[in-house]
Design brief:
Layout lengths: L1 H5 L19 H4 L9 E4 L2 E4 L1 H11 L10 H37 L4 H9 L4 H12 L3 H23 L11 H10 L2 H4 L10 H11 L2 H8 L21
Antiparallel strand pairs: 1-2
Helix pairs in contact: 4-7, 4-8, 7-10
């Protein structure tokens, strides 16, 4: 949505309540059989996977570019997108679920039997297992690993921004959008490793990103004042070998 707003594109937003399992309804699974958001539908074709969809928008709508012109800069953007997709997103959403999502689910007052029945009906086995684990409560070891990975990620982001205004170089890009979409959770979740003493460049970068009109417009479409106070079980960690 930030990408759409940054490019000044007109679109209609369709809210999918993932805590009500709307992403597993048959009509949504026809768009994305993995039961994941976001999905972009244009001319009858459904585009899935956030990073790939943003690159599609970049190529299809060249105005207001969000990728560097030079090949090396475009490579840096894709490296950051992969960094988010392969692990950063999963680490952040582990902590965000524990802090926000589980509480929100309890506040909805769904009886345990009804919740279990809803999980059992999830047609995607991998996501069914992820929801089961999340609702049962993520174990302390997994949460500790997530905190360790986030601390390392903050160091990585801080190092990149120490010598550059933006993550992939001198210009704002899809790299900044990808990282910001999870990074914005962290000041509340990890204040001991994300504060002005240890990560001043990162916090300054975050404030500059969230001050952009396109970012403000995208976040304003949320159903609550701060969309970073809610979460659902996130993506799996990518494992190689």
């Amino acid at each position: 949505m930030i990408c759409l707003e940054e490019k000044g594109l007109q679109y209609s937003s369709r809210y999918v309540d993932v805590l009500a399992f709307e992403q597993y309804r048959p009509e949504f699974l026809q768009l994305n059989d993995a039961g994941q958001v976001p999905v972009l539908v244009q001319d009858g074709l459904a585009y899935v996977e956030a990073s790939a969809t943003c690159e599609y928008l970049e190529e299809a709508f060249a105005d207001r570019p969000l990728m560097p012109r030079q090949p090396a800069g475009r490579w840096r953007v894709r490296v950051w997108q992969k960094y988010v997709d392969d692990g950063f997103a999963a680490s952040v959403t582990d902590l965000a679920w524990q802090a926000h999502g589980a509480r929100e689910l309890r506040a909805r007052g769904l009886e345990p039997a009804a919740l279990q029945s809803a999980i059992d009906r999830i047609p995607v086995a991998q996501r069914r297992a992820a929801w089961q684990a999340a609702v049962a409560g993520l174990d302390a070891e997994r949460l500790a690993r997530a905190r360790q990975r986030i601390a390392a990620s903050i160091e990585h982001i801080e190092a990149a921004l120490a010598g550059s205004a933006w993550l992939a170089g001198s210009e704002y890009s899809l790299a900044d959008i990808a990282v910001f979409s999870y990074f914005k959770y962290l000041p509340a979740l990890c204040p001991t490793v994300l504060n002005v003493d240890v990560a001043p460049c990162s916090l300054d970068w975050m404030r500059r990103v969230e001050a952009r009109p396109g970012v403000r417009a995208a976040l304003a479409r949320g159903r609550r004042g701060d969309p970073f106070t809610i979460s659902a079980p996130g993506p799996e960690y990518v494992r190689w070998g």
